[in-house]
Write a structure and sequence with these properties.
alpha/beta; binds adenosine-5'-diphosphate; 9 strands; 25% strand; binds magnesium ion; globular
Length: 232
C-alpha cells in the first residue's frame, strides 16, 4: 500500500503551552522525508500523534494515516541491564508470529536479512543488554525493518551512531525505500546528507510546519554545526 499521512489543522498543546498551531500538510509514499526542527520544536510530539492516529483511527480527527504496516523506532528506549534476549531474538519480535512459537524458513531468512542491513549479522547471538549503544540502536532499526513496513518512522535513529555507521545506514535506508516504495520519516539534526538522500523535508519552526523539496532546503532549516557534520 502507498502510505499517506494527511494532517489538517492539527494543534499540539501541553497545559498552557502551544507546541504546534493549526498545522496542515500531506506526506505520501514512496518518499524519503527528513523531519527537521530545533530541540523542543515538536518533532517527537508530531510523530507520536501520527502513530496514535494510525493505531487508533478516528473519522474526523486532524490526522489521518493510510498504511498497512507501520514500524516505529522511538527516540528513547531503555531496556535495562537484565533484558534477557539476544539481538536476533529481539529483532525477531518484529516478525509478528502471533502465538506460533517457531519461525519459518522465510522468517529466518528475513531476520538474517534485517540483521545484515544494519551490520549485525555477526552479533546475532550477543545479548542485547551487553551490546554497545550503537549496536542497540541498530538492533532497534533491524526490528523495524524486519516488519517490512510501508510506513517507517525513525526518531533520531543516528544519535548514538558513529559517522561511518550513520553514512551506511542512511544510504541503505534510502536504497530500501526506493526498492520497496515505502514512506520513510526520518528525524535528524544533521542536514548535510539531505539533498543527496532525501526527497523532501518537513520543517517544524515557530509552531508551524513547512514542507518542500530536499534540494531546496531553507538555510534556516540547515544544521548549524556543519563543521561537526560528517558527509555521507
Ligand atoms: N508529555 C509532555 N508533557 C508536557 N510537555 C511536553 C510533553 N512532551 C513534550 N513536551 C514539550 O513539548 C515540546 C516539544 O517536545 P518534543 O516533541 O519532544 O520536541 P522535539 O522532538 O522536536 O525535540 C517541548 O517543549 C517539550 O518539553
Ligand atoms: Mg524528539
Amino acid at each position: 500500500m502507498t502510505a499517506v499521512i494527511s494532517v489538517a489543522d492539527y494543534q499540539a498543546t501541553f497545559g498552557q503551552k502551544t507546541i504546534l498551531k493549526q498545522v496542515s500538510f500531506t506526506l505520501k509514499g514512496p518518499a524519503f522525508t527528513v523531519i527537521l526542527g530545533e530541540n523542543g520544536a515538536g518533532k517527537t510530539t508530531l510523530m507520536k500523534a501520527v502513530l496514535k492516529a494510525a493505531l487508533a483511527p478516528h473519522p474526523g480527527s486532524a490526522i489521518q494515516v493510510q498504511a498497512d504496516r507501520l514500524a516505529y523506532v522511538p527516540q528513547f528506549r531503555d531496556l535495562g541491564d537484565d533484558y534477557p534476549l539476544s539481538i536476533a531474538a529481539f529483532v525477531g519480535l518484529g516478525l509478528n508470529r502471533g502465538f506460533r512459537p517457531w519461525t519459518t524458513a522465510a522468517e529466518k531468512k528475513r531476520l538474517r536479512w534485517a540483521l545484515a542491513q544494519v551490520d549485525l549479522a555477526d552479533k546475532a547471538d550477543l545479548a542485547l543488554a551487553a551490546a554497545s549503544g550503537g549496536q542497540k540502536q541498530r538492533a532497534y532499526i533491524a526490528q523495524a525493518l524486519v516488519q517490512q513496513p510501508d510506513l517507517l518512522i525513525l526518531d533520531e535513529p543516528t544519535a548514538s551512531l558513529d559517522a561511518k555507521h550513520t553514512a551506511v545506514l542512511i544510504a541503505r535506508l534510502r536504497a530500501l525505500q526506493q526498492e520497496t516504495g515505502m514512506l520513510v520519516l526520518f528525524i535528524s539534526h544533521d542536514t548535510s546528507w539531505v539533498s543527496q538522500y532525501a526527497d523532501n523535508y518537513l520543517w517544524l519552526h515557530d509552531q508551524q510546519v513547512t514542507v518542500g523539496a530536499a534540494a531546496a532546503l531553507p538555510q534556516a532549516a540547515q544544521s548549524k554545526h556543519s563543521e561537526e557534520v560528517h558527509h555521507v
